[in-house]
Amino acid sequence: MDIMLATALDLGLRGAVAGLFLMIAVVILRRVRPLDAIRWLSVAMAVSGALYAIVTAPFVPKATVWWIMPVLAANPVLVWLWARASFDDDFVVRRWHGVLWLAVVGVWFSVIYTSTTWPMFAKAGVRSMSVLAIILSLSAALQTVRTWKTDLVAGRRRLRFAVLILSLLIVVSLSVPELMPISARSFGISGSLATAVGLLAIAALAGWALFHPPPPAVVAIAATGSENMGHVASTKATEGGRAVASLLLRRLDNLMTVERIYRQEGLTIGGLAAKLDVPEYRLRQAINEGLGYRNFNAFLNRYRIEEAKAALSDPSQRDVAVLTIAMDSGFQSIGPFNRAFKAESGLTPTEFRREALARSAAIALENDGKLQNRPIPVKIG
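The structure corresponding to this sequence follows.
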């Protein structure tokens, strides 16, 4: 390919990448609410993607942007965090995530400072960061696959495929060349142009994810129980011109509240769909759009936790072990039960039981006091 033509194409692609990434950042900041962790991570990735496309372009003086490159080189950490936040509804950004990002930035600064004085150290640093980028990219891909089955949001399930491609692009375009003696020149194209093409693919995927978001839940359950679910089932929830059949929701309500199928070990959405004799995609749509759940495990756990709360609040079961109550409610081990219970109630099962039994004792004591203070009727005549 002619050098001038390749350079012009490279610069044009990078301009398109920078424009698309900046447009994504502006749209998120101006129109998307609430600005939660997913949105802020998306903005950070978009801005860093635009900067990376600019500072790695031909003819850009590298000496003027050396301090930007270590920050941009930590993008695999942002991608990994974004994938976790996007596809794991229970994921929370922790302080150590920020520490990891800062550590990667620090290593890259060290690489730049020692590239001329200690080239072997700098080379080892580049290789270690490439290995870390591969690990984080594969972890992001694994996260998208691991929770695929339990995801109820149709748009988000499609987005997972895009994230798999994005992770692969990051590994191939940014990390593998540092570890293996291969380059884009082996295929007759410049490395800069190959990077521009990869960035454009990533920007296109990010834009598709933003402008084709998963549909929001139409109806959210604020309380549990057959009465509330029956009320939701008595109406037709619509989203995007589609209707969720109330009959299916009534049958689902019967399975969950009467037959308590959530207690069944290893219950999957496929098994539940077979029990209801409906296609799996229809059941996903019903639970997501009709009941407001984004994850199948969260849907099951809501019933399991309500049963556990009733048992923990029962004075007659005060001596029953928490593990026994968890197993009876459908959980397979104490760890997931404790995490789900605290996420739902803000308390551990033991704390909840202690407070519930204390309330029960106080109510019983108050009722006894009322009975003792009630005047005794006097029979005349």
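The chain is about 70% helix and 0% strand.
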